[in-house]
Structure formats: C-alpha cells, structure tokens
Amino acid sequence: MKHEPLRPYLDSAGPMQAEPSQGSFDPIALARLLWRGRFWMGLAAFILAGLAWSYASMIAVPKYTARATIALDHRQAPMIDFQTAVSGLTGDQATINTEAEVLRSRHLIGQLVDELELALEPEFNPLLAAPLGREAAMNGRDATIDRVTEAISIANLRASYVFSITATSHSPAMAAGLANGLADIYIRNQSQTKAEALAAGTAWLSERVASLKLELQSAEADIKRFAAQAELISPQALESLNRQIKETRDRLADLQEQRGQTAVDGPEADPARSDSRIALLEGSLATLEASYARQSADLVALEQLEREAQALRAIYQHFLVRLQETSVQQGIQQPDSRVLSYAVQPGKPSQPVTSRIVGLATLLGLILGGAAFVARENLRTGFRIGEEIERETGLAVIGQIPLVPIRKRRDVIDYLVKNPTSAAAESVRNLRTSVLLSNLDRPPRIIVSTSSLSGEGKTTTAIALAQNLSGLRKKVLLIEGDIRRRVFRDYFDFKASTGLLSVLSGAARFEDAVERIERIGIDVLQGEESAANAADIFSSERFAQFIAEVRKHYDFVIVDTPPVLLVPDSRIIARLADAILFTVKWDATSRGHVREAIRQFGLAGLSITGAILNIVDPKGMKRYGLTGAGGAYAQDDNGYYSN
Given CB 3.0 to 4.6 Å as the disulfide criterion, which of 156, 369, 387, 462 pairs with 449? Predict the structure, then answer.
C-alpha cells in the first residue's frame, strides 16, 4: 500500500529558522552561523588570549627602546669660502637619503661596536654562547655588527631634516647607550671627515704654493738676467729712436733730391760733396734701423718675461690666500649636524606589548574559532531543523520532539503521564494530529514506526504516540516488531512470557499474550526470541491475517519495527500499514543514512508518510541559535531520550 506524504502541521513551537539553500553566498546566513558559534569562538579567543598573556608576561624576554634625535644643519655655511673642502650639506632629498644610509652603515656601526665593546655582550655576539672559547668568540665582530644593525633603526621625520635613532635592547641602559653612542659617532665622523678633507687640502696647497714660489722666483731671475744683458730700453726711448730714423730718412731724401738738381743745373755744382753727405746719412740711417730692430726685439722679449712672471705671481697669490683660509678653517670648522636630544633610559619595556599581543591573539582566536565552527557546520551530516530534512529528502516533517528529561527508558511513561503540558507531551500531541490528518479520506489505523539505525528514539516515539492516542478514548495496540532486540522489556514489566510469535504460531491466544498497561491505557504485545528468520515470519500470510484481525478490534495499531538499514523487517511490515513514521535523531542521523533508508522504501514501492525529528536538544538548539517561537524547546532540563 502506498501512502502520499502530506505537508506537516508544525507543532506549537512554530517554524524554526531555516538555513539558506546551498549554492550561493549569503552574508546574512554566514553572520547567523557565526553568531550560533559565538560560544566556540569566544572559547578559542579566551584560550589564545590566555596563552598570549602567559607568553608575554612569563616567557617573553622584555626589550627596551630608546630614541635619540639629530638634525642636519643645512643652513650652515663656512666662515671662509673654500667650497671644495669645507662646504656644508645641502638640504635636498638625495642628501637626506645619503645621510640616513651613512647612519646605518657598517662603518659607523663597527665603530659603535668597538667603542662599547659589544663583542663581549652575549646579547649581540652569538658566538659567546657557542663552545668556542672566549678568544674565538671575540673574533665575532661581523656577527656582532649584524646584530647591532638589527637592533638599531634610522628614520627621517617626514618633511624635516631630523633623524631619529631608535635602539632596542634587553637592558634599558644598553638601549640608551646604543642610540646616544651612534649619534655621537655620527657627529664626530662628520667633523673627522671635514678635518681630513681640510688636512689633505692644506697639504696639497702647501706643496702647490711652494712650487709656484720657485717658479716665480725663477721668472723674476730671468727678467733680471735679460735686463742686465740687453741695452737699457723703454718704449719711450724706442719711440725717440724711431723719430731719429724718420728724420734721417727725410734728410737723406732731401740730399738725394738736391744732388739730382745739381746735375741738371751744370758744372758749377759739386757732385762729390753731395755724394759724401748722402753716404754719411745712409750709414747713419742703417745704424739707427739696426739699433731699432734690436731694441724692439729685446723689448718684446722683456715684456713676455714680465707677463709670465706676473701670471705666476697672481697664481701664487691666489693659492697662498687659499692656503691661509684652509689653515684658519682647521680650527673653526663645525659638523653639519647636531644632536637635538639624547636618549634616556626607558622606564618600561617596549616589547612585548602585552595588550597588543593579547588583542591579536584574541582576534586570531575569534577567526580560528569561527573558521573551525563554519568548517564543522559544513562537514556535519546530521539534521538540526525540519526544513533541512524536507530540503534534503523531500519528506514532510510531521513532528519535532524534544529531549525528554529522564534517566531511564522506563521513566518515559511516568514523565508523559505526570507532565501532560510539557514540551515533549505537546510535541507528541502535534505529531498525533499530523498523523491523523495525513489522510483525511482514510485516517491511518495501522502505523509503523521505524528509523535508519538503532538509537534514534523510534521505540520511545511509538510508545508516546500510543499513549497520546489512548487519550482520545481509543483502543490502541502497541506491537513490538523488533523481535531481534526486544527492547520493550526496558519500558514495561511484563507478567506473561508469551508474545507475538506465540500468537502467530498458535501456541498462545492473543488474549493471553497481550498485556494491558493501565498507566497509559494501551495494550502491548511484546516480541519473542525465535530461531526462525524474522523476515520470513513477517512475510507470512499468518502475520498478514493477524494484522487484519487486530485492525477489526483496535482503533489504532502501532508497530515498532527494526531499523531500515539493518534488516528488511520494517519494509515487509510496512506493506500492511496505513502510515509509515520515519524517525531521525536530531544532529546525529547522517544524511546519507536517511537518503539510503528512503531509497530502500522506494525500492519496495512504499512512500514514507512523514519524518519525525527526534530527541531535539533544547540546549543545543539555543547554542546553535535555532530556538523557535512559543518556547517549545525552551526548557533546560537534562535527560535521555533513546530507542
């Protein structure tokens, strides 16, 4: 017989929050999921924060930080302008970057290591801890410089000429000493560099001045020697000699003209006398011209010697002045930087920053706890709300029954009787209503209760439903169909030793085998141990006749059957039933088992009437943020609710 599932009537608890369907990212759903996992996130954050606090307070070695500041005095100018040796630093970015590299250079750090004897400090010399001997460890200068370089940082304050030297050490005194020591070495190194440049410049200038002096003296001596050898001449005397030559030329021309005229006039003239005078003037003119040429050449040579001597004298004077300037600078030159503030010994450690470490650890704990919770939720295979079952399997959820606060199985009957208004009793009443309304035309009378595996509470559900149906003043028969495990003995005290198998075999009458449970007003037929195969028994015609017979005498017959995935008994019995109730344990039954159980019923041509989400833990629902309206799962009682 096939049964069409009906959309369930939800119990008085109302619908619970359903998780969003998979396949798309829902930030709101993620936020709700993280909120449900707030306990685990908080626990992880608390544990990591505690570990971080313990580490920072008890294990970590404290470190102290000291800071010194220096400033580049880019406006400083030398008192005497000698640019190549004593000019100050410019204020451009390239200069600032260069000076920052100078501050952190191995040369300066090496001087700091040597002056403070840091090679003897185990904090900075790793070789001191090695079994190499003290003398060998002293050779670890390079390693010490590396460690000190790591302990010191240089920073340029933005848009300024100020540098901060920050040093970190296990000792506050050492931290201040490192910062102040490097600042002093840097300032001293600037003065030293200038002094060395000035000394080198002075030495070069001294040598050059001496060389130029000798060259000048030699030039002046050449002038004196030349002047002593040559006639005393001057531009004025040479000009006078030039006038004499001109006058002599004029006179010679006149005489030559007169002699020509005499030759024309006649014999009265004396040509011999004219020739004598002309020869005399020609000799005088030749003498004057030769003297002029010689004196002109001597004057040119003298002037050249004097010009060379004058140039040497100017160069000599220039270098002599520079030598005097550099000599003065050696006593008054100042460094291009100054210390703005020296470091003081810090009063408290800068590392570890307990609040920061604890804060980061807390944040990491929240992240790890949230990630672990999300991963656990994604990997879980159980069901927590009815909507999950419906979405996963297509089954209608006709009941959601909370955990019953009992310690033993047999206490479930007393609890339901004594607490008719409890959340569990209300949930069973809602289940009863859903079952009765599952087929309005033919309300079910033969009801099968089953589950995927054992331990899911199907037996307790069957007993609770039977007790609730009897409250309608109906005749109810509860049959133990799980004859292999026979757990009814844990719930009831049977007087008779016979049961279902005795009735089926004819060894006992039904009236003698069935027992009346007055506390809940139902009849119970227990199972019996048998050597025969249970599936064969339930497949027999005799069992079918038995079900047909009890249908005539009872309003409702509830058969508690074995788990579907363990034995085929439930599928065999379900062929005779009007309704099949499939119990799923809250947050325990895997989705794969549920799907396989449904598939098994489908192969048998049977449809499950509805699913029951059973043993819902109220505390678990609160912990996961799945509490529903109406308070059906709001009770805080602890208890057991098992098969």
Answer: 462
Q: What is the pLDDT of residue 603?
A: 95
Indicate the range of 67-81, 362-376, 390-404 predicted with least confidence: 67-81
Give the burial string for 114-144 (b: 16+ CB within 10 Å, else e): eebebbebebbbebbeeeeeeeebbebeebb
Same domain, 240 and 324: yes
Residue 546 in any domain: the answer is: yes
| Nearest-angstrom CA–CA distance, 373 and 379 | 10
The verdict on 402 and 311 lying in the same domain is: no
Token representation of residue 25: 């990212």
Residue 558 pairs with which residues in a beta bridge? 447, 478
Mean pLDDT of the chain: 83
Residue 459 is predicted with a pLDDT of: 95
Residue 5: inside a domain: no
Asked whether residue 297 falls in the same domain as residue 316, the answer is: yes
Tell whether the model's pLDDT for residue 136 goes beyond 60. no
Contact between 625 and 412 under an 8 Å Cβ cutoff? The reply is no
Rg (CA), the chain: 61
Rounded distance between C-alpha atoms, residue 42 and residue 45, angstroms: 5
Q: Are residues 370 and 412 in the same domain?
A: no
Measured from the Cβ of residue 535, the count of other Cβ atoms closer than 10 Å reads: 15
Strands (E) across 393-470 are located at: 397-402, 446-451
pTM of the predicted model as reported, rounded to 2 decimal places = 0.56
The total number of structural domains in the chain stands at 3
Q: Same domain, yes or no, for 318 and 418?
A: no
- The Cα–Cα gap between 581 and 609 comes to 6
Cβ(409)–Cβ(489) below 8 Å: no
Residue 249 identity: R
Q: How far is CA 116 from the centre of its chain?
A: 38
DSSP 56: I
Burial class (CB in 10 A: 0-12, 13-18, 19+), 50: middle
- At residue 458 the predicted structure's pLDDT band, cuts being 50, 70 and 90, is very high
CATH assignment at residue 237: 1.10.287
Could you report the per-residue pLDDT of 537-573, keeping only the tens digit for each?
999 999 999 999 999 999 999 999 999 999 999 999 9
Residue-wise burial string across 582-604, b where 16 or more C-beta atoms lie within 10 A, e elsewhere: bbbbbbbbbbebbeebbebbeee
Asked whether 374 and 41 are in contact (CB, 8 A), the reply is: no
68: in domain: no
Task: Give the model confidence (pLDDT) of 324-375 as tens digits.
Answer: 777 776 666 677 788 989 999 998 888 888 889 999 999 999 999 989 888 8
Q: Are residues 540 and 521 in the same domain?
A: yes
Query: Tokens representing 481?
Result: 């169909």
Q: For residue 91, what is the DSSP state? A: -
Residue 474 domain boundaries:
380-631
Integer Cα distance of 397 and 388 in angstroms: 10
Residues 292 and 356 in one domain: no
Q: Assign residue 413 the CATH number of its domain.
A: 3.40.50.300
Residue pair 642/454 in contact by the 8 Å Cβ criterion: no
DSSP strand E in 467-588: where?
476-480, 515-517, 522-525, 556-560, 579-585
Out of 304, 333, 362, pick the residue that ends a domain: 333
Which pLDDT band holds residue 641 (cuts at 50, 70, 90)? Answer: very low
Instruction: Quickly count: other Cβ atoms within 10 Å of residue 611's Cβ.
Output: 29
283, 305: one domain: yes
Would 12 be classed as within a structural domain? no
